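SEQUENCE, STRUCTURE TOKENS:
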Amino acid sequence: MSGQNSELEGTRPTHSQPNADRSTDSEMDPDPTATDTPTEAQLTDSNGVAVDSALVGDALELSYPTAEETIVDCARLDIPEGEVTALVGPNGSGKSTLLKALSSQLEPEAGTVTLRGKDIHSFGQKELARELGILSQETDSLGSITVEDLAYHGRYPHRGFFESVTDEDREAVDRALELAGVTHLRNAELEQLSGGQQQLAWIAMVLAQETDVLLLDEPTTYLDLYHQFRVLETVRQLNERKGVTVAVVLHDIAQAARFADYLVAMQDGELYDWGPPEDIVTEQLLADVFNVEATVEYEPELQVLPKRALPKDPS
């Protein structure tokens, strides 16, 4: 990739490939009944074990109607089943655009997105909403709606047009409010809450959908440090208690490394690296992707210690 420090070449995997390796035909077991052998398209971890992915983006080229060029060009992206994956990178690197494609909000110009092996654009709207929850950066203004009523909006995929609220709906909303930590705010109006409390209320709505896959686009933006941690801790608890697969766009790589099982580092619309934080968070990545000089410490736990902004390459 352009802009990499030539002195550091050879110390990390080639950045045109994710940290996990693709299996080749020669590595595959010839027995078609074998269940522990990765398929040709699957990624494997550093131990050669196949990564089971809930969402897969393959040969993606993404753009918008108003854009003249491709914004994201990604050969392969995996969101591992039952794990938390954070998409990180500077502004304009393509993180949110990629998440829109994964959630069926943006149709690729080329390539496919599959949800557990099925093309995501083949799902009906309600069918997809029962499988995948999405919290975008742009949330609708709902006026004087209460936190509880907002959570009930998350139950729409589970009801017919004329069906009333069921006991199952009430139980799901109660669980969502409790997990998001906003039970005490259930009767409060959304517009009267702080930004952090509002974000937790929106997360409660998505949790009430009770999907197995959850996509969050910059859920901590504009929040104070306390509410940033509350949001991320809620996401982590949801994953640990319910086994929900999470993909979340974050700006803070230190927070991403702390809370996520996998990181996807984006640079200029391309995948720079992919893998567990302890494998891919390096001083080289911080210089190449974020244009920051930093020290990375791995013991007793992974820490990123920024030092200064690096001068940008005028080219």
Remarks:
- The chain has nine helices and 14 strands.
